Amino acid sequence: MEGFDGKVAVVTGAGSGIGQALAIELGRSGAKLAISDVDTDGLAATEERLNAIGAPVKVDRLDVTEREAFQLYADAVNDHYGIVNQIYNNAGISFMGSIEASDFKDIERVMDVDYWGVVNGTKVFLPHLIASGDGHVINVSSVFGLLAVPGQGAYNAAKFAVRGFTEALRQEMIVAGHPVKVTCVHPGGIKTAIARNSAAVEGVDQEALAKYFDKKLASTSAQKAARVILDGVRKNKARVLVGNDAKALDLLARVTGSGYQRLVAKVTSQQGPTSSLA
Q1: Could you tell me if residue 164 is inside a domain?
Q2: Which of 12, 25, 34, 171 is the most exposed place for a label (fewest CB within 10 A)?
Q3: What's 207's domain CATH number?
């Protein structure tokens, strides 16, 4: 893919799924990588694949919720390569359960990773991206940052927050005249391990929900998702929808406004709790 040769790209959550696919696709396109994850085994697998194609790569274990560590990491990446061009804030988790049944700590954990992890990554790398003269922030939200569903209140909250934060940032970069582009990504059902690795409230059959997601909702491969995202980055799109399901649900929200909520609630009531899996 054109437009990435020689760029220094940082990818969080690169140990599996979309993050791993992004790192590999970027490596194939000539980018220099800095990859991180809390999953060191998955990270090692990504590193091995990047080494096999000869892509330069810096590999670090990183918890995106640890702000001071993230700041040190950003400086280390800049010192290592001398420049940073792109940050893909991709790391994320899911949690299944109604707001009523969820503990405060469960909601806080999702917000810490899925929202504050994006904020941390954006803030600590933004000075380096501005200094590069050719920066790009890519923040991964979700189709559930466009509309909400029952059983995913914490996830919805985080992904809606990512959307608002990212859209404001894009405008601010334009107003300030900074050489930094900004893209918000909204994947639909992607064939990754996010559902299988998800936590859930007591009484929820997490395994059954994960199987439902894998068989019924995950319609796009991580590799295809990465290509769609990078095409959107190359074209400097403000918003990238990944998958036909994401496009259809985005249209539903646009056409019906808040009316989609009654429709989704009705479908969920008819089909049971598995229909609320994100």
Answers
A1: yes
A2: 171
A3: 3.40.50.720
